[in-house]
Amino acid sequence: MGKIYIIDVTNRDGVQTAKLGLSKLAKTMINVYLNELGIFQSELGFPTTRHESNYIKANMKLQEMGVLQPIRLGGWLRATAEDVSRAFEFVPGLRHLNLSISTSSQMIHGKLRSITSEQQVIDTAMKALETARRCGAESVGINAEDASRTEIDFLVRFGLAAKAGGAARFRYCDTLGYDNPFTIYDACKRLAEEVNMPIELHCHGDLGMAVANSVAGAMGVVDGGQDAYINTTVNGVGERAGNADLVAVVLALKKSKGLARKYKLGMPVRLNVAWKLCRYASYAFKVPIPINQPGVGANAFAHASGIHADGVLKDPQNYELYDFSELGRGEPETVETGREICSGEYGGISGFRHIMGKFEVNLENRANAEDILELVRYANVEAQKPLVEDELLFIVKYPDVARELLTLAPLAGS
To answer: How far apart are the C-alpha atoms of 253 and 268, rounded to whole Å?
Structure first.
């Protein structure tokens, strides 16, 4: 039987959300937490974008140092040979890529314009795939954007071409959230059987079914005899109505009726990291977690009804499918209500050493403290908010990596 793996796309699709964004340090912290959670791969960004280059190289350095292990770090590109060459020019040593091209008739004629046929779609993507493999990519996924509105026979032909070209996975994108659990199950089962390669699911929530469609599609892939890869984002952030929520997908796979017996995760996912990750992402994105969010919402384990309260006090399993401690919840939170010293872009050495002392971090000497403080100031400039404890500790522990993350090199003016 095939297994199910999670590829989180918060740092690629999540940051494309209108009116939202993350600093490069925040994106790195997301990768650190995803690795701790046990996620197979993070789609960490856009290697063709100049301002991502130092961030991607810094994260690859963390991987070489063993900090980001065993998680894979993958870049997202348009499926053109030009973009692939540009990516390897900006970030030599890229190892994992996903190459994306539109496949539906609507997108071919309404968006691409320069590509006018299905065969041109295949030819363009295969040229990009060949270029990526020639440049040294270890694994390349081929993405069918708007797959749910694409004729299934064409998707099979496209998938077979990708497999013949050496692609590792074929990504089925429900780009507009058009599918339902029944249609995506059937489509992905057929793709798994006829293309005979791992299938990746990328679902959006325009109709509120991103999680259900992701799980159903993965079930179809496994029933078709292949490994399935589900794309998620932390707290379900993403374009328009968002992507499949990471925690909800994992909870469904682990806790939904009968699923875990047949549809197994290929890597152990440590849900006890979920609370820390989701709270951090909420702070970094400046987007509150909905109170009814599965697992991590404020009301996920709240009981007001007398009947429910009585039942859960007698036995939590009466009204809870899983315990809050499984999500890493339950520890008390301390909130400053008196004097508070924050790390800021205009902070001084005394205040900074006071803050680090609270974390039991003793900086070697004043010169060392000044160097770290300068990095913290720049991190505050980029994030435009006080840094949290884990961010400060990251900078103290990996100052050289932090310096690379915070280095931007705009094009010189004419």
So the answer is: 12
36 and 168 belong to one structural domain: yes
In this structure, are 102 and 227 located in the same domain?
yes
CA 188 remoteness from chain centre: 22
Cis-peptide into 70, omega within 30 deg: yes
Q: What percentage of the chain has pLDDT greater than the value 90?
A: 78
User: In terms of domains, do 38 and 174 share one?
Assistant: yes
Q: What are phi and psi of 236, to 5 degrees?
A: 70, 15
Last residue of a domain, one of 234, 254, 276: 276
Q: What is the pLDDT of residue 165?
A: 97
328 located within any domain: no
Q: Which amino acid is at 195?
A: V
Considering the domain boundaries, does residue 287 fall inside one? no
**Reduced DSSP (H G I as helix, E B as strand, rest coil) percent helix, strand, coil of the chain, to 5:** 50, 15, 40
Per-residue tokens: 172: 């089925």
State how beta strands 4-8 and 41-45 pair: parallel
DSSP code, position 71: -
SS3 letters across 24-65: HHHHHHHHHHHHHHCCCEEEEECCCCHHHHHHHHHHHHHHHC
Q: Give SS3 for 172.
A: strand
Helices (H) and strands (E) in the chain, counts: 16, 8
Domains of the chain: total: 2
Query: Mean of the per-residue pLDDT values for the chain?
Result: 92
Query: What is the domain range of residue 357?
Result: 349-405
Find the distance separating the first CA and the last CA of the chain, reported in whole Å. Answer: 59
For the segment 377-400, the average pLDDT, to the nearest whole number, is 92
Among the listed residues 367, 370, 372, 366, the one whose alpha carbon sits nearest the alpha carbon of residue 397? 372
Among all chains, which residue has been given the structure tokens 């314009």?
A: 113
358 plus 211 within the same structural domain: no
Whether 360 shows a pLDDT value over 80: the answer reads: no
Residue 236 lies in a domain: yes
Over range 211-230, report the average pLDDT: 98
The pLDDT tens digits for 287-301 are 999 999 999 999 998
